[in-house]
Amino acid sequence: MGQSGVGIVTDSTAYLPEDLLREHSVSVIPLAVNLEGLCFREGEMSNSEFYRRLRQSKVLPTTSQPSLGEFVRTYEELGAIYESIISIHISGKLSGTVTAAETAKGMLPHLKIEVFDSLTTCTSLGFQVLAAAQAARAGRSKAEILQLLNWLRRNLRLLFMVGNLEYLHRGGRIGGAQALLGCFLEIKPILYMPEGRIDVFERVRTRPRAIKRMLEVLRQDLAGKELGQIAVLHVDAPGEVARLLDALQQEYPGLTIPVYEVGPVIGSHVGPDSVGLVYGPKPPDF
Prior knowledge:
13 strands; 2 domains; Hypothetical Protein Tm841, Chain: A,domain 3; about 20% strand; single chain; about 290 residues; 4-stranded parallel beta sheet; alpha/beta
């Protein structure tokens, strides 16, 4: 057959730039969004247009996993090129995407497919995907890439704060008592994703204090370790990005820190004006 190497698949919530996806030959299967009766696949509407509509809408958008057919088609196409496939996706505790990928895998027993639950999303997922793609291009085996992915899943940290807890509360992604506490006391909790779920890491009173605390946690987590990956992510919040970048530049002067914008699927659940930080130590050689 002539197939060789490992093909990498992810979903649209990794939010990697198109040039990086093309450079590393990553296949992306998009999730879908429904906003006031308008249904579209992520990527078909610009982020700026979506968030303009979302801010004006009185109805919470809904999101859905990719269709089974999209997974099957993608796997069949890659199966003709690569010896094996690793499909890396948004946490199975946030979306049914992993389940759909596993179902498609079961329909294609002649292909060597490994479905990997990242237990995260957004740039934290994106870092896992990018590392896997780079390892695949370097000729690493499927087993070596999975070992790297497991290490990254354990060691990457995602911290974020939302502009309004109401989106997470109404979408069922966070407890009602915590949402009400934030609304009435103006608390700005720092959120994270232990074991693939969104939960409160710590409660602080203001956004400046939240940024300060996130940097303190960053220092604690990386004490005695070499920084491997770091990025800022946001949901239509350029002002918050500037404040976070300014604080990070004081911590890491001269370091170029990439900024990634979160798209409609995750943006629908966390809401506009959210900002976060993804980081991790340098991985060992596998």
